[in-house]
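DM from R.C. (forwarded with permission)

"hey, sorry to bug you on a friday — could you get me a structure for this? deadline for the figure draft is monday and I only need the backbone to look sensible"
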Amino acid sequence: MEDQTIRTMPRIGDHAPDFTVMTTTGKMTFSEFNKGSWVLLFSHPADFTPVCTTEMSAFATDRDFYKKQNTKLLGLSIDSIHSHLAWVNNVREKTGVYMDFPIIADLDMKVANLYGMLHPGESETAAVRAVFFIDPKGVIRLIMYYPLNVGRNMEEVQRALVALQTADANKCALPVNWKPGDKAIVPPPKTLVEMDERIANTSYEKVDFYLAKKELANVSAN
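My reply, with the result:
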């Protein structure tokens, strides 16, 4: 059973599995929600828990950043819609943060199983802290998993999102710890002629012919 679960988990490059569910903003079909924008689909173990509250509040607080990046937020936990609504209202009353993005009520664990969010070694009834980065074509571009007892790094979530969008816009690769304003990796040469051209090029920052960097003109989400 465990091997089968691993084999069916979505992977980078796969088309995001579609589903229709109830959320805190109403009934949703994922493929419709995903059209024309990036989506961050993220799970949390349970409503009314401390680490989850800090994480979901952080997503809500940074809603303007995600909007600028043409990215929709979509949360999930294995709780009822009534629990979600009560939790959203409680957080708003206690902290002033309004988690107004849709949160999936996944009581039957349909979506959690579809996306491999249940890891029995951690829990059989609570989803781990997964983040799926899904592009406007519905393709999974990056997956992050965190355990139940460690909150996500929101700075890395945002850096990774911008990096994916920048790499797409510039058709390039990005080096370790890349952030906006840093140089990008120039694809390595594939022929002797390209190698000689690379060696002669003075506009690149070169370690050697196979490792060169260039300035980016376009650091954009759209």
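R.C.: lifesaver. Residues 171-214 form a domain with the Antioxidant, Horf6; Chain A, domain 2 fold (CATH 3.30.1020.10).
me: no worries. Residues 154-170 form the longest helix (17 residues).
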